[in-house]
Amino acid sequence: MLRFEARKALQALNRSTPENREQAEALFDSAFAALERGEHAQKLTVAARTTIYRHGGPHSWLMDQLTFAGSAKERVVRNANELRAAGRISEEELRALSSTAGAGLELTAPAFLQDQYIKLARSGRPYVEALTKHPLPEHTNEVEIPDITGGTSTAAQKDLGAVESVDAVTAEVKLPVITVTGQIDVAKQLFERAIPSLTDAVFFPDLAGDYLTKADIQAISGSGVAPNAQGVLGASEVNSVVWTQASPKLWELQAKIAKCISNTWTKRLLKPNLIAMHPNRWLWVCEQKDAQERPIVLPTQYTPADALDGEAPGEGPVGSWLGCEVVLDPNIPTNLGAGTNEDRVIVQRASDSWFLEEPQIRTKVYDLGTGVIRLQAIGYAGLTHSRYPKGISVISGTGLVAPVL
After folding, report:
1. Helix, strand, or coil here: 274?
2. Beta 169-176 vs 297-298: how paired, if at all?
3. What is the pLDDT of residues 107-119, one digit of tens each?
4. CA-based torsion, 278, 281, 287, 288: positive or negative
5. What DSSP designation does 137 have?
């Protein structure tokens, strides 16, 4: 009997998941301690709490979303209950899912794919990731943020003198909620004959990456005309700094960045902390040399005090310049200006721009009826650069003609 209980404990330990590993190990230790003492082991039950959709698992979230009948629907509903218990979806979405039959629904992806999406977000949209992010409120197509256009006042007061009294003048900044989507079409045979776990691992990152790119482009270059958000490059109230130069030099770009920093200090009364540019612009900066043919931008380690603090170019933060973090974003356009060959440099206080979105990305899968399966990623977001637009500066002009590297 003792050996049977010990064998059960060993089997439970082998079947355990990260969530119940500690309990399984306790059962294992108890059973074998009892064997050594010649006593009966305490009988414990280890619950199998393996999530229905997981990396390397037997089921595909996207395949089940397409089928959405029988056991596939049961798995989708079970996943929704897991997400609801973790606070990742609303009770309303859970109720709607449980009472609906048929494919083509917009559903929140499983937790392991959401975690993968969060990792992608760090590199797929560098500019957005530098901004202040908030959760998007539910049940609204427009978000209103209070704005103080005329501040209160204080003053020194003499004994028994009058207290300074100036009321704030308020207004509202309105953020229309936009829909950001991406989709891919896949041959039905390829989709249905693929290994289930690989289907999610291959297609979801591609969908999420497309969504991230489009959200980032909206924040940078959105036209402001529905259904688009107003991106920073087209915002009418930001400061414009023009750099006209046929043979640009690095010190001239630094002078323009210094002008932008001065704009923020003067008009926002606070320090900027973000410089966003295209990776090719940073590579051009890294190419520049001084009169002794020494590179001006050196690796971060062992950098002299009089050189720029930089790193190997890539995507996202790469160094600092005049006290501002330099963020590289390949979604900054390079086809602007009269010659359609200029890029832009953005200098701002990152926390002044807000990006609001749902914390989870949704997916939609349906059969087009032509031997093609369509997979979509859907997200809802709000964006504003209008809280303190005078704290943002955009450098433009012929000095930013795309460099030849």
Report:
1. strand
2. unpaired
3. 566 776 767 666 6
4. negative
5. P
Handedness of CA 100, 104, 108, 114 (dihedral sign): positive
**One-letter amino acid identity for 206?**
D
Q: What are phi and psi of 316, to 5 degrees?
A: 90, -160
Question: Side chain identity at 54, as an amino acid letter?
Answer: R
Which range has highest mean pLDDT (112-116, 370-374, 394-398)?
A: 394-398
Q: How far apart are CA 393 and CA 233, in angstroms?
A: 9
CA atoms within 13 A on the CB side of 399: 20
Q: How far apart are CA 264 and CA 90, in angstroms?
A: 40
* 3-state SS, residue 200: helix
Residue position matching structure tokens 């950098």: 303
Q: Which two tokens stand for residue 131?
A: 């901004």
Find, among 290, 249, 278, 269, the residue nearest to 352 by Cα: 269
Which pLDDT belongs to residue 41?
40
| Helix 196-221 / helix 111-124 crossing angle, nearest 10 deg | 40
Residue identified by tokens 């082991």 is 41
Cross-strand pairs, 357 = 135, 381
Q: In angstroms, rounded to a whole number, what is the distance separating the alpha carbons of residues 335 and 399?
A: 14
- Cβ–Cβ < 8 Å for 222, 234: yes
In angstroms, the CA 274 to CA 250 distance is 18
Q: Is 121 helix (H, G, I), strand (E, B) or coil?
A: helix
User: Does residue 286 contact residue 310 with C-beta atoms inside 8 Å?
Assistant: yes
pLDDT digits (tens, 9 = 90+) for 4-46: 444 454 455 455 554 455 555 555 556 555 555 554 444 434 3
Q: How confident is the model at residue 252 (pLDDT cuts 50, 70, 90)?
A: very high
What lies within 8 Å, CB to CB, of 163 at 6+ separation is 157
Amino acid identity, position 18: P
Are 218 and 373 a contacting pair, CB within 8 Å? Answer: no
Amino acid at 185: D
CA separation (Å) from 208 to 101, 119, 138, 177, 361?
Answer: 26, 10, 21, 19, 8
Q: Is 118 helix (H, G, I), strand (E, B) or coil?
A: helix
Map out the domains of the chain with their CATH numbers: 2-37 (no CATH), 105-405 (3.30.2400.10)
Bridge partners of residue 185, in order along the sequence: 374
